[in-house]
Write a structure and sequence with these properties.
Length: 134
């Protein structure tokens, strides 16, 4: 549960270029295009090395955002979504899903471990940012 109005949480989730300010692994984000509710953005992720990938994000304000990968280094796919539900005027339930498949000889256990260790930190960072701005 995030102690912030749904509009604040939505604003944090869809302000892609600000991600590097509060997500430790996110080094860069550049919005390449916006056409109505569809955004194409290139992300830079600093893990053991810099990984760049481009996502097509579809926004349905203020409750749903989903994405699919356009292209990416070391990734075969990257898909996911945010679903937001206003529980009260000052609280939002956020559900985040992600499925990533890496290219090459990276064992599934490595990619699963990466997501499992990164996901809780990512969720806490979004929660903290939204609550700070609320």
């Amino acid at each position: 549960m995030i102690k912030a109005p749904i509009e604040k949480v939505w604003g944090v989730i869809t302000d892609y270029e600000k991600y590097p300010e509060f997500l430790a692994e996110q080094s860069t984000v550049k919005v390449k295009s916006r056409n109505g509710n569809v955004v194409e953005a290139q992300f830079g992720l600093k893990l053991m090395m810099e990984i760049k990938y481009t996502l097509r994000l579809t926004e349905t304000a203020p409750t749903h955002m989903s994405w699919t990968m356009v292209d990416g280094q070391m990734m075969k796919s990257n898909e996911g979504s945010w679903v937001l539900e206003a529980v009260s005027p000052t609280e939002t339930k956020a559900t985040y899903t992600i499925e990533v498949a890496l290219k090459g000889l990276v064992p599934k256990s490595v990619s699963t471990g990466l997501i499992d260790s990164t996901l809780p930190k990512t969720m806490e960072a979004f929660k903290g940012r939204a609550e700070k701005l609320a």
